[in-house]
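Provenance and format

Records in this collection were gathered into a single text stream. Each protein contributes a sequence line and a token line. The two records reproduced below are adjacent in the stream.
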Amino acid sequence: MSYMSNRRRSERLPVGFYVDQIVGNDLHRCFTTDLSALGIFVERVAEPMRRSSAIVQLEIPLPEAGETLWAKGEVVYDRFDSLFHGSAIRFASMARAHQRMLREWLWDTRTTDRSLPLPPFRAPSVVSVHRPTPTRSVSDVARTLQARQPIAC
């Protein structure tokens, strides 16, 4: 196991939906790629952003739950590339009801989401092939085709 996976205290769930990150008085639309009960990773288009503190506000609309969670988070690290600015955010505070909703949503999504990785496919050891028995012989089909009248155009 790598160092990064050993230090995780909560299992991350791969997700893909939009969240709003409020930095100071500025609203930034972000896309989240993973979520856990303790934090979130968000990405947005790389553009100038002034952040005088590591503390941000998050508005997290849980898909198919009809609920929006509010949380205060601390930016643990930023990652930049040519197109995107990614931020790993640890939840610093959240209402207990929102914490419970998030844990329940994570559990429900983890147990019911069919888009999550499935176990590897294993081919059956015995393959049976069903071949239907013909009800008409080849000579019967040939006679039927010869008996048809050509269509006049």
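Adjacent record:
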Amino acid sequence: MRQQRGSWRALALAGMLAAAAAQAQTQTQPQANDDSTVAPAVKAKQASEIRRGDPARWHQGDPTQQARLRTLQKEIGAAYAEAKKACGESPAAERSACLKEARSIYEQDMKNAPSQLETAPQGSVQTTVQTTTPASR
């Protein structure tokens, strides 16, 4: 079983922003909900990867506290990059606020990363996900 690591709060924000951006995209451009838009070469590569299974490194925990912290920080950074990308795809009027919120969450997650590792059992980091509603326009 793959050990769960990372900042769920940052990942949840990135997921919500990506979903909102995807919804906005689908409203402007109708797309098929099947594999008809996937290139044949990509389909073949994906099938090959699925047959091989998960890489062994995915099932190995980080051996030290410092390695766990680096992994957590890398995951927080990846979630922030996804959030920024989603913000970039949002309407211009909302972009600044979106980027500001994403940056705030990134900074808070990075600040809390060491304490998350101290209180979490080996290989497990969990955070509380807070849902927010957009401000009235």
